[in-house]
Structure to design on (224 residues):
């Protein structure tokens, strides 16, 4: 399946390129800050899917290029603004788009586990997230995703989200439920970037041939 990666030379782009063949994806092009996706798609015939793991600054151009070329998109970019999310929703009326701030299976399972806090009283909820020193956005996209899941599943958000940056930590999230007498901890640790890269490649296989729409990783896991 002919695939273009936006952010190909980045940490995640390189990881996706390494695992792509396991999913039958052939990387036929890559885009960075010096090259536009529209040009790349125009010069590369037959591209079937675009995977974007670049930065929010590219989101607008990526959406426009995918719509113009009629190519499905998998995006794992975090730190995207509300207006980018609105543009994404609009673009998904024309092409299928799967967006997830975290492409790992473990975080999807963690999100479901938060359901167990529904209706539980007397516990304060808070979150911590740890990432490598190069991570730009804070709180992380995953922390915001988990906070939305908390809200959806329990009607409550984390009172605080604490972000720590340092070293080479790929990604760790902890949600604490704290009462006067006990503390519950829900946690997820990504041990490598391949877990996200494999999730993105799986999503790329899945999205090709779907009708236009804005999909999440949960859709993939439920409808696979
Ligand atoms: N969803 C998930 O599961 C997940 C997991 C991990 C990371 N992420 C997210 O993935 C993204 C990339 O992370 P990373 O660690 O790989 O970052 P990175 O190493 O800094 O790589 C960023 C890439 O984006 C490219 N880029 C920057 N500006 C661009 C522009 N205007 N147009 C096109 N490409 C542009 C860079 O191009 P150059 O090579 O030309 O500099 C580079 O290749 C971040 O948003 C991160 O939060 C998501």
């Amino acid at each position: 399946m002919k695939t273009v990666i936006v952010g190909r030379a980045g940490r995640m782009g390189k990881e996706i390129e390494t695992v792509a063949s396991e999913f039958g994806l052939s990387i036929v092009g890559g885009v960075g800050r010096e090259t536009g996706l529209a040009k790349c798609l125009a010069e590369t015939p037959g591209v079937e899917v675009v995977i974007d793991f670049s930065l929010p600054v590219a989101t607008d151009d990526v959406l426009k290029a995918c719509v113009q070329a009629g190519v499905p998109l998998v995006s794992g970019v975090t730190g995207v603004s509300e207006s980018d999310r609105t543009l994404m929703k609009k673009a998904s009326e024309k092409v299928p788009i799967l967006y997830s701030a975290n492409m790992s299976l473990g975080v999807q399972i963690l999100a479901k586990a938060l359901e167990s806090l529904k209706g539980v009283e007397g516990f304060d909820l808070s979150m911590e997230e740890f990432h490598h020193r190069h991570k730009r956005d804070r709180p992380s996209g995953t922390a915001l995703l988990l906070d939305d899941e908390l809200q959806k599943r329990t009607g409550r958000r984390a009172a605080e989200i604490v972000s720590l940056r340092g070293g080479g930590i790929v990604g760790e999230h902890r949600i604490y439920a704290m009462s006067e007498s006990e503390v519950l901890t829900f946690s997820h640790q990504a041990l490598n970037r391949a877990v996200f890269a494999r999730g993105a490649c799986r999503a790329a296989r899945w999205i090709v041939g779907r009708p236009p729409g804005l999909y999440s990783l949960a859709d993939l896991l439920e409808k696979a």
Observations:
- The beta strands are 2-6, 26-31, 49-52, 73-75, 96-99, 124-131, 161-165, 171-178, 183-190, 213-215.
- The mean pLDDT is 97.
- The CA atoms of residues 56 and 81 lie 8 Å apart.
